Fold each of these.
Amino acid sequence: MSRINTNIPSLIARRVLNTQNDGLNTSLQRLSTGLRVNNGKDDPAGLIASETLRNEEMALQAAIGNVGRAVNVVSVAEAGLVEVNNLLTELETLIDRSANEAGISEEERNANQLQIDAILNSINRIANSTEFQGRKLLGGELGFSTSGVLASAVSGVQVYAAKISNNSYRNVVVAITASAQKARLDFTGSAVGAGSLTLEVSGSLGTDTISVASGATVSAVAYAINQISSVTGVTASSTASSLAFLSTNYGSSEFVSIRGLNRAFTVSGGDAGADRDNGRDASVTINGTTATTQGLKASIRDATLSIDIDLTSQFGNMQLTSDVETFQILDGGADFMIAPKVNLAGTENIGLNSITIGNLGSSTLGFLSSLASGQTNSLASGNYGQAQSITRAAQSQVANLRGRLGAFQKNTLETTANALRVSLENATAAESAIRDTDFAEETSKLTRQQILVQSATNVLRIANSSPQNVLALLG
């Protein structure tokens, strides 16, 4: 080289050295931070993808935390229900003991009533004091509210779950496609004929026999049947020339069987043999979905609506002017956001109806409050069978609520949490593959960059010293 003002090899060596130093610094940064992508220039597309995945991870972690909080709420509610269930078991024991009238004294019965009153007070106290962060779980605050329910068509509505958009409502359209029926057998005639008659009467509650005198009128037979209806589940009604035997309730589980024991007694209308007839469940659709029915009770269970509806006998028998009833679910229920994306699809809810003594029981049987002192079904009234039926209905309500809470926790919350954890693992692995440093690869690059920096440094030193060779020409 014979030019000294411009040292081209030095410029080249300096450029290469800067490039190698940049590579070395990048490797040192990646190894010190553990991240392959430290800023946008490292991998623009990778940065965008990793930030998206990081947001998903945060949402997944929040959803897993929400599921854990939901499990806590369900556990608190069930703890209260366990105590109520124990109290109801003790309540039935007191009723059964008190029904043994000849075996206990008046003082003991009064003492049993005092215990019943204390149990009823305890149930109310548990319902009103079972809380989670100030929200009463069993006092009705987390139950669903409805509007537009026509009393002549629907006697009761229990909403267990309903997905409803904010500030909106959910229509429920109930349509009867086939009527419910009681079991029925008919006898034609004004009297039973010559000779005494012994009839075996069977229904869903049990079997009993009656005996009527020769030539007894059908009204006398009906009266005898109705005297044992609480034993058999069969009632009777008569006209001047006919007698009808009916089950007390509607549905396929109801039946009537009438059989003459000492002589023939001809009845008609049986569908399961000449002397037996079964009832029929109503055929119902709810929002276009075929409902599961039992007598006059219709239910559906799907992803957006879980509801039980008690139909009136007029509506269930299609005796009203319309066989379609529409009402609205306004709001309510315990809502849990258990998905990483906040929308209606990611929300699960469950209705926690009030378990106070004014709500446990039913409108047809009566409520637990009627068992208190001075009420219609207290021990002093002697209505032990009715009191027991109310108590068992209340036990069934509490047990069903516990079962639904357990199913919600096991089949919805816990399975969702497991799925979310797997999703979090996969999202984290994907984000790590993009963003984290591969130390084996990066240490290899570091070694290479160190060698190249040393080489470029030596080359630059040589390039800087090359112009000194021009001095030989001046000598």
Amino acid sequence: MTLPLILAIVILVSVFFWLRSRRSGRSLYQTPRSTSKSALQRQTRRELLRLTNGNQAVAQRLVERVREQHPDRSEQWCWEKAIYDIQRDRRA
């Protein structure tokens, strides 16, 4: 095959996938959002409890500390930040 033919095929395939992603309303790299907001919050809370070995008092203290440091952030963000902090500290 010649180089121009290969380039033409690559461009056609790229345009096809680009148009397909535009029609579906999402990028090829985005994952579909099938979980609701409350399910995500439940999952986040469950993950923090798992990381604290089920100790709800510790989990709540961690979230409260994050909330005090970042009062402008949402509750969901505070829980996610507490999870991130635990994971970061355990890697160190």
Amino acid sequence: MSGDPYEEELVYLTLDDALEIYAAIFSLSVERAADHLRSREALEGALGRPASYAHYQQADLALQAAVLAHGIAETQPFVDGNKRSALIAMLTFLELNAHELSATDAELAAWIIGFSSGTTPEQLADQLQPRIEPMP
């Protein structure tokens, strides 16, 4: 045990959660969302990254949220909407863990699009850290 308070207390997104997010974005059923999955393995890998980072790198909440978003945005597990899915998954992960992100829609979009130009999860985490707040 690393002693990291996030390692055992956080709630992590599941494959079903990710499919529900995708379904909500595109107004589809979860079954239809699964039909839009290009690589189940890529999605499962992306969903597993936050817990892995928590365990092996003692990642804080910001870095765990960033690696989740990066994993989905960069592995492109869906046929369309990967960056949108990455953003909503990141926000959902924070919300499930009683935190919210104080940012404008333009900032959120720029952060996710930044992955395409080489932004690393660590760089995104540095931007997220001061903007993550416990939910009231």
